[in-house]
Every structure is written in C-alpha cells, then in structure tokens.
C-alpha cells in the first residue's frame, strides 16, 4: 500500500503511546513462565507482541483481556505443553531469540519459524552460546527454522557478548533461570536492560557490565506489570515536532529507561528543545512525560558507545540529520544491516532519491548536500521503522512525496498514521 503526504505546517497536541514493545515481550514471557495469574496493563498493540502472545497460547498459557488489562494465567517452571505446530515468530527477532533461550530448557521438541525477513536474520549469535549451555538446537546456516530438542543436561556459562545485543543477553539469562548455578553475561557496551530490571537480576558494574541469573532466587513469579509508553514509537513524532515550525508536542507516560533514551541525549546535543517532566517508576522501569518544541538542529559526532542505545532510532535520527546544520555521519553501526531490513542500505537508497549526496560505508553512512528532488516515492523495504522515518521525511519535504509498503508500521505501532493525523495542523 502506498501513502501520499503533504507538507506539515506545525505539530500541536498530546500523545499517549501503547506499552513499549521490548518491555511488553518480556512481561508476556515472564508472566507465562510464572505459575498463577499476572496482570499486564498497557500492553503493546504491535504485531510483534501479538506473535509472542500467540506462541505462549500454543504452549498452553491462557490470556484474557478485560478493562483492567491483559490477564495471563502462567504455567510455571517446565510446565508448558508441547506445541502441536511450529512456533511462528512472524517478523519479531526478540520473540525468536528469547524463545530459543526458554525452549532449550523444556523436555519437549519444538520448531521456531518466522516470516521471510526474520528467516534471513542471523541466529548464530544465540545458537552458539545456547549450545555452550548444552542446548540441543539444529538449524541450516544458522537461520530459522531452528529445531530444538530436549537437552541431555544443561550447564551454566560465563559469556562475553561478541555483539552488543539485548536479545542475545536475554536469551542466555532466560536459559540460565532454569539452572541452579549462576549464569553470567558480560557486556562491553550496555544494551537495554529490561530483562534485568523485570527479574531483579544482580548487575555488577565494573568496566564491563556483568549480569547474573540462576533459578533459585530469580525465576519469575506472578505479578502485576504496568508497561510505560513506547519511547521508540515516540521518536518519529519528536523529530517531526522539532523540525516543523511553532510546534509543541507533549508525550505522556513514556518509557525513560536510560538504555533507551540515547536518541533524546543526541537530539539535545543537537540543540533540541526537549524537556522531561513528571518522572515516575513502575515495575522497576522509569517513565514520564516528554515536552518538545521546534528547534534549529546542528549535526554532531555520535560516539560509538551510545550506538546500542540508539540502534532502533538511527533511521529517524538520520532524517533529523538531513535538516540539521552541517553533515550527518554515523559509523560503528553495522548491526543496522541485520535488522528487519538492511537499514543502512534502505536509508541510503531512499535518501539518494532526493538528490542528497550519500556515502555508504560497511558500518554507517554520511549525508551531505541539499534536497534537489522534492517529489519522491520512498520504499519501506517492508521495515516498520524505515516506513515511519520516511513518512516523517515526506511530511517535512511536502510536494506529494509518498511511501510504498506502509502496512508494515503495525509491526511496532498500528496507530502511527492516526496519531500523525491527530497532531498535525
Ligand atoms: C530488542 C533489542 C534490540 C532492538 C530490538 C529489540 C529487545 O535488538 O534492536 O528492536 O527487545 O531486546 P538486538 O538485541 O539485536 O540489538
């Protein structure tokens, strides 16, 4: 499906976002693993989280939705029922990777599958450490489908993450929850820490961060969760408000977890007028309101240590970079090539259509020059964050720009276009 955009004049209003996608996945995992009833308030409406929920239904977990939220009747440790069919993660890397960590510890066989994009994404990063733990996993070329058989025995490991990935960290920690000895994950660059916060895992802060899990104290129990709004979904609206004239946008009750708000730090350094108010905590996660006013942005150098914390926001940060003074350059983010699409290629190919000068590197890209062609048909590459970033760029350029393949926005935010209509003046 193709959508046409006209130029935005100003952004005014207040937005609430459905629960954060990463936190929602984990709330479903841990409430399903716990024995008894948990309540999840403000669960994500994303297709990805629906994939996680459907898989746990196949494993025997009962879900009931009412006005209070999502009630989850969890099964308890090693009490899932063997699935009759393959477990389909759809487009969701988080589902596939965290699920692998859980399934190596079950006493039944299972098969994990996904859509075309997920079936091309690298799984060696989880298969290797989970095999070191004794996991019995089979796959061709380290891609989905992954077949998982009951393990003869599992052992704990101490694992230094070769790639900065919260999904890999979480998969190992979840497997570790089934063992009495301590499983340790060591990360050089800090990645999102929702698993640690939700399970209350001990974290040793030294040069490298070490997170520990074991079954004795940390296996999840039933509880109530409140999921703060999805800060990654809000990023598209924040950049649109910053770059349109006389704008004021208030985003209510959104996640302010510091491992997720790196893009706000970058935008502030770029001279963005962004304020945080009403900071609170729930389920160990900080959240609050973000207030944004139009700003004249300047490009800055992005330090490599912050890359894991802005990885999902690089597409929209690059749109901010197009309109900021100076040239936008980002490096050390080769990981972007292994997301829902090759995001470096997707960003570069789309930006080139506008006549901007774009230099593509293996680990990043550089944008310079001026927009020469203001009537462009961008491609979503079937990737929700590319579709949303280039919808924002289209509204900033005007002149009937369009984005082809917009249906994928539901992977993270099915309300994206309704919310855009509500704040645009
Ligand atoms: C996620 C971790 C990140 C991120 C993804 C969600 C998570 O992926 O890009 O959107 O919920 O753990 P990686 O672990 O591959 O960096």
From TrEMBL:
Domain of life: Bacteria
Metabolic or biological pathway, per its Swiss-Prot or TrEMBL entry: Metabolic intermediate biosynthesis; chorismate biosynthesis; chorismate from D-erythrose 4-phosphate and phosphoenolpyruvate: step 6/7
GO molecular function, one term: 3-phosphoshikimate 1-carboxyvinyltransferase activity
Assigned EC number: 2.5.1.19
Record InterPro entries: Enolpyruvate_Tfrase_dom, Enolpyruvate_Tfrase_sf, EPSP_synthase, EPSP_synthase_CS, RNA3'P_cycl/enolpyr_Trfase_a/b
Catalytic residues (positions): 312 (proton acceptor)
One Pfam family matching this protein: EPSP_synthase
GO biological process, alphabetically ordered: amino acid biosynthetic process; aromatic amino acid family biosynthetic process; chorismate biosynthetic process
Keywords, sorted A to Z: Amino-acid biosynthesis, Aromatic amino acid biosynthesis, Cytoplasm, Transferase
Enolpyruvate transferase domain segment(s): 7-420
UniProt: 3-phosphoshikimate binding residues: 21-22, 26, 165, 167, 312, 339
Catalytic reaction equation(s): 3-phosphoshikimate + phosphoenolpyruvate = 5-O-(1-carboxyvinyl)-3-phosphoshikimate + phosphate
Protein family membership: Belongs to the EPSP synthase family.
Assembly with partners or alone: Monomer.
HAMAP family: EPSP_synth
Task of the protein: Catalyzes the transfer of the enolpyruvyl moiety of phosphoenolpyruvate (PEP) to the 5-hydroxyl of shikimate-3-phosphate (S3P) to produce enolpyruvyl shikimate-3-phosphate and inorganic phosphate.
Stated name of the protein: 3-phosphoshikimate 1-carboxyvinyltransferase
């Amino acid at each position: 499906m193709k959508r046409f955009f006209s130029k935005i004049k100003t952004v005014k209003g207040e937005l609430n976002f459905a629960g954060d996608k990463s936190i929602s996945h984990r709330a479903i995992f841990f409430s399903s693993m716990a024995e008894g009833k948990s309540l999840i308030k403000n669960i994500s409406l994303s297709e990805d989280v629906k994939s996680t929920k459907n898989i746990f239904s196949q494993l025997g977990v009962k879900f009931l939705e009412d006005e209070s939220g999502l009630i989850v009747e969890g099964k308890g440790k090693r009490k899932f029922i063997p699935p009759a069919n393959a477990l389909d993660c759809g487009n969701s890397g988080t589902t596939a990777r965290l699920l692998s960590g859980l399934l190596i510890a079950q006493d039944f066989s299972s098969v994990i599958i996904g859509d075309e994009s997920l079936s091309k994404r690298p799984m060696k990063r989880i298969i290797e450490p989970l095999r070191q733990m004794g996991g019995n996993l089979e796959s061709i070329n380290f891609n989905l489908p992954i077949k998982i058989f009951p393990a003869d025995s599992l052992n704990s490991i101490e694992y230094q993450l070769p790639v900065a990935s919260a999904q890999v960290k979480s998969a190992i920690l979840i497997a570790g929850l089934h063992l009495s000895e301590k499983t340790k994950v060591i990360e050089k660059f800090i990645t999102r820490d929702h698993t640690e916060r939700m399970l209350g895992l001990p974290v040793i802060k030294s040069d490298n961060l070490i997170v520990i899990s074991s079954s004795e104290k940390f296996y999840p129990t039933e509880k109530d969760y409140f999921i703060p709004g999805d800060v990654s979904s809000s990023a598209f609206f924040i950049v649109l408000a910053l770059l349109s004239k006389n704008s004021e946008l208030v985003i209510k009750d959104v996640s302010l977890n510091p491992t997720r708000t790196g893009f706000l730090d970058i935008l502030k350094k770029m001279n963005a007028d962004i304020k945080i108010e009403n900071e609170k905590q729930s389920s160990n996660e900080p959240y609050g309101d973000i207030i944004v006013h139009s700003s004249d942005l300047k490009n800055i150098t992005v330090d490599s240590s912050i890359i894991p914390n802005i990885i999902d926001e690089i597409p929209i940060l690059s749109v901010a970079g197009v309109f900021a003074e100076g040239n936008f350059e980002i490096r050390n983010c080769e990981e972007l090539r292994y997301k829902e699409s090759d995001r470096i290629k997707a960003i570069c190919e789309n930006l080139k259509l506008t006549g901007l000068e774009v230099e593509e590197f293996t680990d990043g890209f550089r944008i310079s020059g001026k927009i020469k062609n203001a009537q462009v048909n961008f491609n979503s590459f079937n990737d929700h964050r590319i579709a949303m970033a280039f919808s924002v760029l289209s509204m900033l350029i005007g002149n009937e720009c369009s984005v082809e393949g917009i249906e994928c926005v539901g992977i993270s935010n099915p309300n994206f276009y309704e919310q855009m209509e509500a704040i645009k003046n």
